[in-house]
């Protein structure tokens, strides 16, 4: 059963605290690894929240860092326990991007740039099915259906009555022109995109082809921000075999500045909405 405790966020916070304790002790990750007879990569994964952490790990690390305050140790042990609970997405089995889903579930705002496709949070079910089937041609129908179900569940953050996710999306025109499935399906998808863009917490902008080169030509990325100031923002870059998560302030700042340039070069909100609606009408004419 899913828990109201987000295990991904718990792991991040716990990892940040363990890194802080290590730095206060003046030790490197390599020195800690040598003391515990484990690999340095394990210490790094524990600190960046990408690996599940046990209460035994916390106990051993607190011993190395000579943490004498039992209240701190107990608190960290409880965080470790919470971090091993399962989020709602675990009920769907092995999801390759489960770390991202955990972050997105707890995020307050999300800024997305996508040059190729409509972002998952704004996709219709039919578009998602056709997109996943085309992008992963060797995937079994059951696995495609599972991915689609997860995507639809993620969209509940957009439709939530209380504290919905604040979503800002910048799309390249290519994402609107690429026919996923068929033209009738694309018309429905773009009409849905126009409808979603009218929600007060959803902003959609488009960069038309005529704009030429722009800062987003290097590819898709997302910036997640969280309600708790203790949780640093994260830049997420999706990969084929592995994903990249950037949390250093300098990296987040560079991508944030790049996103501001994208927003400035894109059509404004009203122009973007009309641009999308016009392309949807083109698909409707083709479908006749």
UniProtKB/TrEMBL annotation:
An MF annotation (GO) of this entry: DNA binding
Q: According to the lineage, what is the superkingdom? A: Bacteria
Q: Where is the HTH cro/C1-type domain?
A: 18-73
Which SMART domains does the record associate with it? HTH_XRE
Pfam families attached to this UniProt entry? DUF5753, HTH_31
**SUPFAM superfamilies, per this entry?**
lambda repressor-like DNA-binding domains
Q: Extract the InterPro entries matched here.
A: Cro/C1-type_HTH (IPR001387), DUF5753 (IPR043917), Lambda_DNA-bd_dom_sf (IPR010982)
Q: What's this protein's name?
A: Transcriptional regulator
Report the source organism: Streptomyces naganishii JCM 4654
């Amino acid at each position: 059963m899913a828990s109201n405790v987000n295990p991904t966020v718990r792991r991040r916070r716990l990892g940040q605290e363990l890194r802080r304790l290590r730095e206060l002790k003046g030790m490197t990750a390599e020195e800690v690894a040598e003391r515990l007879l484990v690999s340095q990569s394990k210490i790094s994964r524990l600190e960046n929240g990408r690996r599940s952490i046990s209460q035994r790990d916390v106990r051993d690390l607190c011993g190395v860092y000579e943490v004498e305050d039992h209240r701190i140790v107990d608190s960290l042990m409880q965080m470790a326990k919470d971090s091993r609970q399962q989020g709602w997405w675990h009920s769907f089995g092995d999801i390759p991007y489960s770390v991202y889903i955990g972050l997105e579930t707890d995020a307050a705002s999300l800024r997305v740039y996508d040059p190729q496709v409509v972002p998952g949070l704004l996709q219709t079910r039919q578009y998602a099915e056709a997109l996943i089937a085309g992008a992963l041609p060797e995937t079994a129908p059951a696995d495609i259906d599972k991915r689609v179900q997860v995507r639809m569940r993620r969209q509940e953050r957009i439709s939530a009555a209380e504290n919905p996710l604040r979503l800002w999306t910048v799309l390249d025109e290519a994402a609107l022109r690429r026919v996923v499935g068929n033209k009738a399906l694309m018309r429905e998808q773009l009409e849905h995109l126009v409808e979603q863009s009218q929600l007060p917490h959803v902003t959609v902008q488009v960069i038309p082809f005529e704009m030429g080169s722009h800062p987003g030509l290097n590819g898709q990325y997302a910036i997640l921000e969280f309600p708790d100031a203790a949780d640093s923002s994260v830049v997420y870059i999706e990969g084929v075999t592995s994903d990249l998560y950037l949390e250093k302030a300098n990296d987040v700042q560079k991508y944030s500045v790049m996103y501001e340039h994208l927003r400035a070069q894109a059509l404004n909100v009203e122009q973007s909405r009309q641009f999308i609606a016009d392309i949807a009408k083109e698909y409707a004419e083709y479908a006749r």
